[in-house]
Write a structure and sequence with these properties.
Distance between the termini of chain A: 30 Å
Strand content of chain A: 15-25%
Largest sheet of chain A: 7 strands, mixed
CATH architecture of the largest domain in chain A: 3-Layer(aba) Sandwich
CATH class of the largest domain in chain B: Alpha Beta
Number of helices of chain B: 15
Number of strands of chain A: 14
Shape of chain B: globular
Oligomer: heterodimer
Strand content of chain B: 15-25%
CATH architecture of the largest domain in chain B: 3-Layer(aba) Sandwich
Number of domains of chain A: 2
Distance between the termini of chain B: 28 Å
Radius of gyration of chain A: 20 Å
Order of helices and strands of chain A: EHEEEHEHEEHEHEEEHEHEHEH
Number of domains of chain B: 3
Helix content of chain B: 25-40%
CATH topology of the largest domain in chain B: Rossmann fold
Strand order of the largest sheet of chain A: 10-9-8-11-12-13-14
Largest interface: A-B, 66 and 76 residues
Structural class of chain A: alpha/beta
Strand order of the largest sheet of chain B: 11-10-9-12-13-14-15
Order of helices and strands of chain B: EHEEEHEHHHHHEHEEHEHEHEEHEHEHEH
CATH class of the largest domain in chain A: Alpha Beta
Shape of chain A: globular
Helix content of chain A: 25-40%
Chain lengths: ~325, ~450
């Protein structure tokens, strides 16, 4: 064993999504490192390191907790900075759901580009590499001057559709113009029809009128998007699709943020199912919403970590989902 | 009226923002600062900041249902928004600097730091191969550690379940006690008299996840340590785009050195001094006390300034348990004489109130008549309020560097609050006009 190979994967888990970290660790055949994060009574976050990370290849898994994004982000920054101080060889932040990904442009005067701020903060703290899943806009990678591996849930979705439906019965629908590229890519792989919904958005978190472009009659309409937040868009889109004669409507979404009244909205909707990956901790939402199905993304993340550590190519994962 | 200046307030201390704006004679900048339902901060600055000198006031305090980390992220986002909005200069005004005082020891639930003997309790579970091997080429990495881990983890869990059932440590189990089969025998089967205390010593302020913490054990042979976030916070502020930082009574003056941008550290000292001179009868006869050696400089500065005596409380770090009953006070030592005199405790920050209440207890024992505690930052977290209510302290005096309304309601007449907004307003005015800040504190 050469000296360069001496370092190992150290998987550190933040508080936001321990289940995912455990699954990744199990997949990699390692244990989650012994660290613990706490909040003092004055609400400052403290991070205790219980084992050596010196010269190790550190991977820190931290997702976003719905409703408490800043707490998790601060914890992640402190964890990164602690590993930097503790002489880790390389620190990779594994952020399945990149926080503030939607605040990625100055869409009006003095609007903050918070995604860039988060990118800068991660680098300031000492991250050498970022692994994430389905960035809202892949241009966010340009905010970093360190490598960013943007993994896709698409292969997992393709498998889900192939295993559960006859592809000729399906039509892939993008709920907005911005997601058209994502949806057409899936439609191309499955060789199915494609439709698009155009929407007007008067204010954030509020959805306006919707128009369907394309034909969904007597088909299973599959809505594809990168995140489901309040689910207003998805539910309205589903209603529009039903009105236009779709046999049934389901949605495939990478990040199930499901904030606010999302669960109630979903339960009362015409959507037959909402399929999400476990990039975001879902908590008790699966029990509260019978329509919610979860695809495990941890094999993809674990494989990306393994390949990054061994210096192998990650691009295989862009088209294949490990079983 | 000050021209070309924008004062932008965060959500942490609206009263201070209003007060500073009043003194500067300008309205606070209109902004929307809330949270999206997903939990991400939403910030919209509604007034123009182009070419302006922007001051963003956000204190490092979370309370009244708000969170410290939210406030800090809000601050960074606001700084960044002003920067991208072509502000000429952005100054972060942090009356209380967050993460400036991080204890290096884990805290237990009551807020008192722990002097834990973790390695001793864990040592019994060592197997010969759990000692970290000296790394050398060709020497396999310690796979044997995994085995040792399982035992400690299981032990931690079983002892925890036992604790819930009221079994008081493996050594003192009475036959009357209820046990739940497996957990009981599991703990016994390993036959390791692991004291309950080693588990309890890891509990902290994270109330939601107690079992997780109970199971936490550092890897055998590794001394656990707590990450210090002070440098990180400084770097994050600079990275967000702060050109200048104004703060007050930094716990460590070295924090100033963490920044690459100018930091103006204001002093609460003149306010505290004025309070002593105007509100404490016969203050010339009083003694100024520093509750720990680290604050001695701060306290002596005041004592010298008003010409009164000075005493110091020295914390003796007890490593091994002593037999003295009131062990807590046994580890504190008073240097100086306070018998039949008024005592004035001076410190920069009261958080859980552990230090000052213990100091007060010691002072009363040494014969102090009245005890005042003068502190710049009154955080009062955890059960600080109750602890102070029950303590020997007669009067607590803090500044409004963090919101004090709630504390005042709880502590009543025991708490006096000094207003720091004039100091900050004057500092902002002087920084804006490029005048000296140090003359503000010259005659103190």
């Amino acid at each position: 064993m050469s000296a360069e190979m001496a370092n190992e994967i150290k998987l550190i888990s933040g508080r936001s999504h321990p289940e995912l970290s455990d699954k990744v660790a199990k997949r990699l055949g390692i244990e989650v490192a012994r660290t613990i994060s706490l909040n003092y009574s004055n609400q400052e976050t403290s991070f205790t390191v219980g084992e050596s990370v010196r010269d190790e290849d550190v991977f820190i898994v931290q997702s976003t907790t719905t409703g408490d994004v800043n707490e998790g982000l601060m914890e992640l920054l402190i964890m990164i900075s602690a590993c930097r101080t503790a002489s880790a060889r390389r620190i990779t932040a594994v952020i399945p759901n990149f926080p503030y990904a939607r605040q990625d442009k100055k869409d009006k005067s003095r609007a903050p580009i918070s995604a860039r701020l988060v990118a800068n903060m991660l680098q300031t703290a000492g991250a050498n590499h970022i692994i994430t899943v389905d960035l809202h806009a892949s241009q966010i990678q340009g905010f970093f001057s360190v490598p960013v591996d943007n993994l896709y849930a698409e292969p997992s979705f393709l498998r889900y559709i192939r295993e559960n439906f006859k592809t000729e019965d399906c039509v892939i629908v993008s709920p907005d113009a911005g997601g058209a590229k994502r949806a057409t890519s899936i439609a191309d792989h499955l060789n199915t029809a494609f439709a698009l919904i155009h929407k007007e958005r008067p204010r954030p978190n509020v959805v306006g009128r919707m128009v369907l472009v394309g034909n969904v009659e007597d088909k299973i309409a599959i809505l594809v998007d990168d995140m489901a937040d309040t689910c207003g868009t998805l539910v309205k889109a589903a209603a529009v699709l039903k009105e236009n004669g779709a046999k049934s409507v389901l949605a495939l979404v990478t990040h199930g943020i499901l904030s606010g009244n999302a669960i109630e909205t979903l339960n009362g909707s015409v959507l037959s199912a909402l399929v999400v990956t476990n990039t975001v901790p879902l908590g008790d939402k699966v029990e509260r919403c019978p329509k919610l199905r979860v695809i495990d993304i941890s094999p993809t993340i674990a494989e990306a970590i393994r390949r990054t550590h061994n210096g192998e190519s990650v691009s295989y994962l862009f088209t294949h989902a490990p079983v | 009226m000050v021209r070309n200046i924008v004062v932008l307030g965060g959500n942490s201390h609206p009263a201070l923002v209003d007060s500073v704006c009043n003194m500067l004679g300008l309205p606070a900048c209109n902004r929307i600062l809330t949270k999206f339902s997903s939990g991400e901060s939403r910030c919209e600055i509604q007034d123009s900041v182009r070419g302006k000198d922007v001051y963003i006031i956000q204190t490092g305090f979370g309370g009244n249902g708000s969170k410290l980390n939210d406030h800090f992220m809000d601050l960074c986002i606001m700084i960044s928004a002003c920067k991208t909005g072509s502000a000429r200069r952005v100054t972060a005004v942090l009356p209380l600097f967050p993460y400036s005082r991080q204890p290096d020891l884990p805290y237990k639930k009551s807020g008192a730091p722990l002097f834990k003997a973790g390695s001793e309790s864990g040592r019994k579970d060592y197997t010969f191969d759990s000692v970290p091997a000296t790394p050398a080429p060709g020497v396999p990495r310690t796979a044997g550690l995994i085995n040792g881990t399982d035992i400690t983890n299981r032990l931690a869990k079983t002892v925890l379940t036992n604790g819930v059932n009221g079994v008081n440590g493996a050594g003192s189990m009475s036959p009357v006690k209820q046990t739940n089969g497996e957990a009981y025998f599991g703990a016994n089967g390993v036959a390791s008299p692991m004291p309950n205390t080693s588990i309890g010593s890891y509990t902290t302020h994270d109330y939601q996840n107690v079992s997780h913490i109970g199971a936490f054990q550092a890897r055998p042979g590794y001394k656990q340590w707590v990450a210090q976030a002070g440098t990180l916070v400084a770097n994050l502020l600079t990275c967000a785009g702060a050109d200048h930082v104004i703060t007050m009574d930094l716990h460590d003056p070295q924090v100033q050195g963490f920044f690459d941008v100018p930091v103006d550290n204001l002093y609460g000292r003149p306010l505290l001094k004025r309070y002593i001179q105007t509100h404490i009868p016969n203050y010339k006869e009083a003694v100024i006390i520093s509750p720990d050696a680290g604050g001695a400089k701060r306290a002596t500065a005041i004592a010298d300034g008003i010409g009164v005596d000075f005493a110091l409380i020295h914390k003796v770090m007890e490593r091994r348990p002593t037999k003295i009953t009131d062990r807590q006070n046994a580890s504190m030592m008073l240097v100086g004489n306070v018998a039949d005199r008024v005592c004035i405790l001076i410190d920069d920050l009261v958080d859980t109130g552990n230090t000052i209440t213990r100091a007060a207890k010691l002072l009363k024992k040494e014969g102090a008549t009245t005890i005042y505690a003068l502190l710049t930052h009154g955080v009062f977290s955890g059960d600080a309020i109750n602890r102070i209510k029950a303590s020997a302290i007669d009067k607590v005096v803090v500044t409004n560097s963090v919101p004090q309304d709630e504390h005042r309601a709880l502590l009543g007449s025991k708490l006096d609050v000094l207003d720091i907004s004039p100091i900050f307003a004057e500092a902002i005015r002087r920084v804006h006009h490029g005048e000296s800040i140090s003359v503000l504190f010259n005659n103190d």
